Amino acid sequence: MAEHEANAKHEANAKQEANAKQEANAEQDGNAEQAAHWDGPAGAHRVRNLEFYDAELRLYRDRFSAAVDVRPTDRVLDIGCGTGRSTRAAASSAVRGSVLGVDLSADMLRRARELSAEEGLRNVEYQQADAQAVAFPAAGFDLAISHFGVMFFADPLAAFGNIATALRPGARLALMVWQAAERNEWSVAIQEALTPGRPLPDSTTGPLSRSDPDGNTELLLAAGFTEVNHTELREPIYYGADAATAYAAVSGFRMVADLLAESDPTTAEAASARLRATLAAHQAEDGVWFDSWVWLITATR
Questions:
Q1: How far apart are the C-alpha atoms of 170 and 167, rounded to whole Å?
Q2: Under a CB-based contact definition with an 8 Å cutoff, are residues 225 and 160 in contact?
Q3: What three-state secondary structure class fits 96?
Q4: What is the pLDDT of residue 28?
Q5: Per-residue pLDDT tens digits for 155-213
Q6: 103 beta partners
Q7: For the chain, how are helix, strand and coil distributed in percent, rounded to 5?
Q8: Residues near 279 by Cβ (< 8 Å), separated by ≥ 6?
Q9: Mapping DSSP to helix (H, G, I), strand (E, B) and coil, where does residue 177 land?
Q10: Which one of 76, 166, 265, 299 is separated from 66 by 20 to 30 angstroms, measured CA to CA?
């Protein structure tokens, strides 16, 4: 009996270790996949279309800056900083503090450094790293911000736990993320153009993965934050001066590029034509616009 119990316990432990190893490998694979995407075609696309991406979310950027309220002496961590628009804005306010922008993309960080130098900012640095795993200085920051940069973690709990460790007690967290697909006209319209009649994009993965406020609250509390609040914001987003400009940028979106690349030529051509028509239908005198909803999330370490 004792030998049987010992064997059963050994098998259970072995199975647990195997599962843990499998989960760790899956997490690494997930991080590697994201790193390959952002430090590859996605990052290069965003650098080439920098003007588009800066203009796309400009109405939200103004509201985010006002809500974040960077203080002159703040030490700021900007997660998923991209080409550094939000990083530079924070550095302009933290005149006696400092800002560290972190991103997976070498291309975007290279451009961020160039733009920061052009603006004469001396209190900003950039680091190519995965915010989920990089060893930040413990309690080294007074504020962590992210303007649409926290939706792609392979292990969100590990990522926000790591971010929490980087913040001093009482430090602030401010994030802006998309709401669910059905609340974002851009998501619905693009999906319908590409694959008419298909279900809406999954709002638990990809750019929409932080759309559930209850899930976000549970996650952030578990990661070491308190006073989690969600504020609902609605603004139109700008896709360019005309439909041709919008198509040049939107065709680089992952959901678009992947589908067109995987389709046969006839299917891809039809999807492209529908997408061009959709963008043209949203063109006004001042450009191509789509309705959208986001969450502004704040919390305290």
A1: 8
A2: yes
A3: coil
A4: 44
A5: 999 999 999 999 999 999 999 999 999 999 999 999 999 999 888 877 788 899 999 99
A6: 128
A7: 50, 20, 30
A8: 239, 243, 246, 247, 250, 288
A9: strand
A10: 166
